[in-house]
Amino acid sequence: MKLPAHITLTGRKRPVAAPDRTPVYAIVGNPNSGKTTLFNALTGLRQKVGNYPGVTVEKKIGITWSQHGRPIEIIDLPGAYSLAARSPDEAVLRDVLLGRRADTPQPDRLICVVDASNLERNLYLVHQILDLGRPVIIALNMMDMAAAAGMKVSAAALEKALGVPVVACEAVHGKGLVELKLALSRIELPLARHRWDVPGPIAPAVAELQASLTQNDARTALVARAEALLLLTDFDTVRVAGSKPLSPRTHEILGTWRQRWAGGGADWSAALVRSRYDAIGLLCRDVVRRTRDSGPSRSDRIDAVLCHSIWGWAVFGAIMAALFYSIFSLAEAPMNFIDGQVAAFGGWVKGGMAPGDLRDLLTDGVIGGVGGIVVFLPQILILFFFVGLLESTGYMARAAFIMDRPMSKVGLNGRSFIPLLGSYACAIPGIMATRTIENARDRLVTILVAPLMSCSARLPVYLLMIATLLPGDTIPATTKAGIMLLMYALGTGGAFFFAWLFKRTLLQGAPPHMIMELPPYQPPHFKDIVRQMVERGWLFLKNAGTIILGISIVLWFLTTHPKHPDSAATATEQIAQSFAGRAGHALEPVIKPLGFDWRIGIGLVTSFAAREVFVSSTAVVFSVENFQGGKRADVTPVRTALRQARWPDGAPLFTPLVCLVLMVYYVFAMQCMSTVAVVKRETNSWRWPLFQIAYMTGTAWLVCFAFYQAGRALGY
Amino acid sequence: MSAAHLHLSPLCQLPAGATGRVCVLNGDDGFCQRVREMGFGEAALVTKISGTATSLCLVNGTRLALNHRAAMSILVEQLPALSLVDGPAGAR
């Protein structure tokens, strides 16, 4: 068998020199071991970090510079406990390391990030990686937390035992980065003095499979050995080998060994894991000393309350209530300020220009449309501040723990709640986060229901409706927050109901096991939180300045053209015969049973692009209607325009019942093109996103119909 | 001593604050393998922090949350209180 170039015939390994081209390092390690924090510190990038497992679900690439000024490419990979991948995010790590990803170069060298406070468990993955025979640098991270837990971890002893560079660091505090960069800059890196003998009874199977994989499946020697070990510990060969099928000979060998073992009654996959942990245990004996019995840690004491069966729920409820109350109480002043500035700017433009199409386009289309949405920026920022706090402190994983029990009632587990909780901010990262879910059916169910969680794009719609429903400043913020909380609860309840339904019909399966790591609590990193707020706020403004601006301009055109032949026509007559008006009228028979007229219909159609477009669309439609023809010289907030809207018989259009029904519609309806695209990508099919649009929008119509008709029957 | 001679109980029934030794893993192969890979295999020591429906445990210095089904699949033998001072890391 041909050995890799760096292994000599005598078994001594030569150091591996850096390649002539830009060297590629991959950062690997267990979930929540600080990989992305280290990646950001090395590259200067600002990838999202959080204090819970599964923040990174796709590879990220950046550049750092060696001590000699040479560029070094760094790939940040999702975390994994083992190369035996069980979920899509773990498969990314395995496939990159085994050189199976066409879009990613196989890394030349690896940085194994290891949580020093949990060395044994973290070294399991390192142990598997060392089997691959690639140059490795170990970043012994979180040394401060190890010390706090009463452990003294010796980087020198670990380096001596493994024979590879080991750098003690605290990535979050920037400690050890210089030493790590020095290690990255080394021209040659020694290969590990890694000796681990496969348990005797398994060795012939490993050798035979390795030989077949090398000869018949074109694997290199060490990759073949790693793959042979994985095939022997995971019966799902497709999961291990990827989509490219194994050769018939390898299949035959595998089947023969499995049959032989099944007859013997011994659990060899358990023996393999135990053998590795035995080797790691011996290694750690010289590396880690416990200096004191630390007793219950601060996190343990906090968990005793926050994960308590009663107090845990009380705290969870209080956090959610505080979030919604803050959205109303803290945001009011900045919102009023922005509102006033937009109105003043609109008035200034209107006063400074001669009447005509251009002036109407700028005031009703651009300023009315974009201004109507920008006013909600403070509330978006508050939402992301709270989400950042939950992620940064480690509470996110606790919320999943608390929610496990209700999740189990619908056939999922608490692990599915992290993507759902993330979907409160935006469904797209929420759906991406489902890659951490091991069971394919559970993952699909979570993807299907995630958009039912009320995302930040619904916030402007809810706020506009609540402002129309409860006008004036005399209504207490608690009442408004209560209605908002109701909408979030309705969306969450809907997600749970449909998860229960799908698990019993389309995607049946036993309730899954859940085993999830809870990270230690940490003080919030306000720098990261503010960075995330700024990024999300900027994205919101960018959307307002691009998609929403574009749609507002197009919609303004569609509501003002073609011109009414009678120049004395009223604004209502003008918009009724416009392109948008005709489309709205065509839609009206479908939505009238919900209490919506054709003008609301225009908002519903245009907001399929993104939910918040409803606000800008109604701003344009109702501004055009109310302020055309120079009857009014100012630009009034859209909520005032909505309160003045009437049916042809003079009855108010936005009654309290219609406002509530409209909010309910947005709770359930699938109104986001970006989400549809992401679901298509994650499920690799159009079948599921189309099903999602049908079931969500169908449910929205049915629930709104029942709600509106019942409200009418009760006299509302 | 074989598992049959030990007084085994599911992890969810281990009292809060008590320490046990994992003796038997039930459940499907994938679950057992993952549990072992996370250092929670046979002979691992586990301290229960809280919970019965969903269990919160300390294994090798790591807090792990397990749902009821998972905790029912891990059979442990309760041990008297022990100290890890000056011992090797973890207590496998």
CATH topology of the largest domain in chain A: Rossmann fold
Q: Bin the helical content of chain B.
A: 10-25%
Major sheet summary line of chain A: 6 strands, mixed
What is the CATH topology assignment of the domain at 23-78 in chain B? SH3 type barrels
CATH hierarchy class name of the largest domain in chain A: Alpha Beta
Low-confidence stretches of chain A: 1-12, 627-635
Shape of chain B: globular
How does the overall form of chain A come out from the CA principal axes? elongated
The number of helical segments of chain B is: 2
The level-1 CATH class of the domain at 23-78 in chain B: Mainly Beta
Strand content of chain B: 25-35%
Q: Biggest interface and its residues per chain? A: A-B, 58 and 44 residues
The CATH superfamily name of the domain at 23-78 in chain B is Ferrous iron transport protein A (FeoA)
Mean pLDDT of chain B: 81
Please give a structural write-up.
The complex is a heterodimer of chains A (716) and B (92). Chain A is built from 31 helices and 11 strands. Helix content of chain A is 58%, strand content 7%. In chain A, the strands form 3 sheets. Chain A has a 6-stranded mixed beta sheet, sandwiched between helices. Chain A is an alpha/beta fold and 716 residues long. In chain A, helix 7 packs across helix 8 (221-233). Chain A is elongated and about 95 Å long. Mean pLDDT of chain A is 86; it is low at 1-12 and 627-635. Chain A has 3 domains: 6-197 and 278-289, P-loop containing nucleotide triphosphate hydrolases (Rossmann fold, 3-Layer(aba) Sandwich); 306-326 and 380-525, no CATH class; 358-365 and 528-713, no CATH class. In chain A, a hairpin with a 5-residue loop joins strand 3 (60-65) and strand 4. Chain B has a domain at 23-78: Roll (SH3 type barrels). Chain B is globular. At the A-B interface, helix 3, helix 11, strand 10, helix 12 and helix 17 of A face helix 1, strand 5 and helix 2 of B.
